[in-house]
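Subject: Protein record for review, amino acid sequence with backbone structure tokens
How to read it: Take the token row as a discrete description of the fold.
Enclosed: The protein record, placed directly beneath this head.
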Amino acid sequence: MPDAQTLPLLLRQLRLPTMAACWPQLETRARAENWSLPQTLAALCEHELAERERRRLARHLKEARLPVGKTLESFEFDAIAAEQRRQLSALAGDTQWVDQAHNLLLFGPSGVGKSHVAAGLGHTLVDQGYRVRYATASSLVQELQAAKQALRLSDALIKLDKYAVLVIDDIGYVQRSEAETSVLFELIAHRYESASLIITANQPFSAWDSIFPDSMMAVAAIDRLVHHATLMELSGESYRKRAYQRQLQGGKTGSSD
């Protein structure tokens, strides 16, 4: 006859640590509420799966490197147009665009919330089970340049394939040099129609000659990016300016009390 005392050890050997940890409490509850064996096993499995999902989300969120606190919930949607609010809500709620390897391109001057929106969508996608990677354009280009110098650029690009969405923030800050823009172009070409990009940019496409020194390369990059893409231009007053004004108003209110 099986020895019940060995159950925790058996569960750990089967790599079911959550079952092993919560078994004593669930056994007590099962006896008190007269659960059947299938009910007890189902409850144990639910605990194990829930903990695995929690660990998976934590792991994927850590590897995503998304800015802390920049979620869609914390974004000031009142600052953007109603149509843009609807677009962002649709992109967050219906992830078919990710499954189809479509892109999202966010344009606008500094401070209007492009980076916040991009990071917020990244957080939402991680919560929905997608693997995401966030990076500033300058840091990502440096990473790819180092790989190219080590003759491992192809490996680096393939390594990024595990991410369904790659968020490239502030593409306009890439320095205008052939070495930097060539690896950026190779990344765009590599992910074309295979995985999604979310890109933020201060400059419209008409000014992308400042990013790509070769005009033909700029045209080719834009062509690949927009072929399957949603383009949004955010406008309005700078978030930092609004925050500063609120701070001033708060100080005035406090001084009058």
User: Anything to note?
Assistant: Residues 147 and 183 are 10 Å apart (CA to CA).
